From TrEMBL:
Binding residues annotated for S-adenosyl-L-methionine, in chain numbering: G186, E187, S220, S243, L244, H245, N323
The organism's taxonomic lineage, starting at the top: Bacteria, Bacillati, Actinomycetota, Actinomycetes, Propionibacteriales
Domain Radical SAM core: 117-360
One Gene Ontology biological process: tRNA methylation
HAMAP family assigned to the protein according to its UniProt record, in alphabetical order: RNA_methyltr_RlmN
Record function comment: Specifically methylates position 2 of adenine 2503 in 23S rRNA and position 2 of adenine 37 in tRNAs.
Superkingdom, natural source: Bacteria
Protein name according to UniProt: Probable dual-specificity RNA methyltransferase RlmN
Chain residue ranges for the region called Disordered: 1-21
Keyword Mitochondrion: no
InterPro entries: Aldolase_TIM (IPR013785), Methyltransferase_A (IPR040072), RNA_MTrfase_RlmN (IPR027492), rRNA_lsu_MTrfase_RlmN/Cfr (IPR004383), rSAM (IPR007197), rSAM_sf (IPR058240)
Length: 374
């Protein structure tokens, strides 16, 4: 009999908990106008506020000179309330990797990471304060779930990074965010409504949103199959990243407890169907753990599982050298075992990459900085 706790598909908010301030990023264009009009303010001002936030990346109301001075504070208070406060920013890679610890309005802590490469800028964002998926090797999972983040709290992490780039605060000159990955704290698909709202704000044309390409957005999941199916029908061609970590149910039940509800076969089939419908290649995320999941035979088994849906290029594997948390029994694989794992996957025709290990010296694994601060 399985005595594991049942993990919910969508994390509900505890009763009585105060909600984050409503922000224009929580609303579409019509919702922003309607809110202002309900407050007795001119609805057309919503587009001006959106332009300041998404296009000009302004966070100082005194710079919003096209708003009437007598209404400016009220307009800003209505649609641009403060959402989060930076507590610490740590830098690595000569300043091109920046990890920020944010304090939300209720004291919850979340993290985001900006990574600048020669050809792109990627921001890794959190979608929940903590995580309820309970994966034992993950610092965030060990802390449990505090609450879901709002759409605007998720978007603000990206906008804050965009401001830093626009203001030339990141080495390499002024730039723009090209990629957003939902791989920070939390299980994105367990906060489905807010995450999809954030994806829409990121991809809405400016000034309604940031005007990013959906192809530059990656949404990760540990395998909430009904939510993967829902995302398949959403009509937004983001990249799906499935955190698999093991090709067999016995081990994955231990590493990713949600697997006791949705097996490896069910989870991979849902990911394959996403690729089939959207024509977007799925990324299989696989954290390499020494002596746990890095054996050569598991590479062969992983290839067998993935190739069961044909070899039309629907998938690639992204191996992640584990960034261990202090005192944890989980540690990174030996480089020789990692190379052999890659060799075996590629010999079966599975495109494979090894993730760039940025940020190790700044508590790079999700949840480490928040856990240290707490």
């Amino acid at each position: 009999m399985n005595d594991r706790p049942t993990l919910p598909l969508v994390m509900s908010e505890p009763r009585g908990r105060a909600k984050p301030p409503r922000h224009l990023a929580d609303l579409d264009e019509g919702g922003r106008r309607a809110l202002l009009e309900e407050m007795g303010l001119p609805g057309f001002r919503a587009k001006q506020l959106s332009t300041h936030y998404f296009a000009r990346l302004v966070d100082d109301p005194s710079e919003m000179t096209d708003l009437p001075a007598g209404q400016r504070d009220e307009l800003v208070s209505a649609l641009l309330p403060d959402l989060m406060t930076p507590l610490r920013t740590l830098e690595a890679d000569r300043g091109t990797t920046r990890k920020t610890l944010w304090k939300l309005f209720d004291g919850a802590l979340v993290e985001s990471v900006l990574m600048r490469y020669p050809d792109r800028v990627t921001i890794c964002v959190s979608s929940q304060a903590g995580c309820g998926m309970a994966c034992p090797f993950c610092a965030t999972g060990q802390g449990g779930l505090q609450r879901n983040m709002s759409t605007a709290e998720i978007v603000e992490q990206v906008v804050a990074g965009a401001r830093s780039l626009a203001r030339d605060e990141v080495p390499g000159g002024p730039g723009r965010v090209s990629n957003v990955v939902f791989m920070g704290m939390g299980e994105p698909l367990a906060n489905y409504k807010a995450v999809i709202g954030a994806v829409r704000r990121l991809t809405d044309p400016s000034p309604a949103g940031l005007g990013m390409s959906a192809r530059g957005v990656t949404v990760s999941t540990v395998g909430l199959v009904p939510r993967i199916n829902q995302l398949t029908d959403e009509g937004i061609p983001v990249t799906l990243a499935l955190s698999l970590h093991a090709p067999d149910d016995e081990l994955r039940n231990e590493l990713v407890p949600i697997n006791t509800r949705f097996s490896v076969a069910e989870t991979v089939e849902a990911a394959w169907n996403y690729a089939r419908v959207t024509k977007r290649r799925v990324s299989i995320e696989y954290a390499m753990m020494r002596g746990i999941n890095d054996q050569g035979w598991r590479a062969d088994l992983l290839a067998e599982v993935l190739n069961g849906y044909g070899d039309w290029g629907w998938v690639h594997v992204n191996l992640i050298p584990l960034n261990p948390t202090p005192g944890s029994k989980w540690t990174a694989s030996d480089p020789a075992d990692e190379r052999e794992f890659v060799r075996r996957l590629e010999s079966h025709g599975i495109p494979t990459t090894v993730r760039d290990t940025r940020g190790r010296e700044i508590d790079g694994a999700c949840g480490q900085l928040a856990a240290t601060e707490s």
